[in-house]
Write a structure and sequence with these properties.
140 residues, alpha+beta, Thiol Ester Dehydrase, Chain A, 6-stranded antiparallel sheet, 3 helices, elongated
């Protein structure tokens, strides 16, 4: 992570689980990540949420032929509770992302998809929902 996403490394992001269907990324609550209101800074939460969606996308396009470019085009967030402990972001959109990538290859057209990542605290309570819109384009 240090070479590809140094701020993620500094913030303490950790990949907890990844498979074709979903991924989970955690972020600690601590000195480097907190805001003046004694909760995890929203930008750190956004970084973890984006990573949970981006991991699935990268896994799908990494060895694809043709190669792909991918880019975040929009970020939305809804906060429901203060993040005052380790937060886990889970994205369950792997199957739909796979279909989007296949459609991109078939049509040769750029595709976008709005991934959802749900953040929960250590007790399983929802902290936030993030919606990360990814754009995919096959390099022909």
């Amino acid at each position: 992570m240090l070479g590809k996403l140094p701020m993620g490394f500094i913030a303490g992001l950790r990949i907890r689980e990844i498979n074709e269907m979903s991924s989970i990324v955690s972020v600690p609550y601590g000195y480097l990540n907190k805001n003046p209101f004694r909760s995890t800074y929203f930008a750190v939460l956004a970084m973890a949420a984006e990573m949970s969606t981006g991991l699935l996308a990268v896994m799908l396009v990494r060895n694809a032929t043709p190669s792909f470019s991918m880019l975040v085009t929009n970020v939305e967030a809804h906060f429901t509770k203060k993040a005052t402990s380790k937060t886990y972001f889970k994205c369950n959109d792997g199957l739909v992302l796979k279909q989007i990538i296949e459609q991109c290859i078939i049509t040769g057209q750029a595709q976008t998809f709005r991934c959802r990542s749900i953040g929960t605290n250590e007790g399983g309570e929802e902290i936030a929902q993030f919606y990360i819109t990814w754009s995919f384009k096959a390099r022909m």
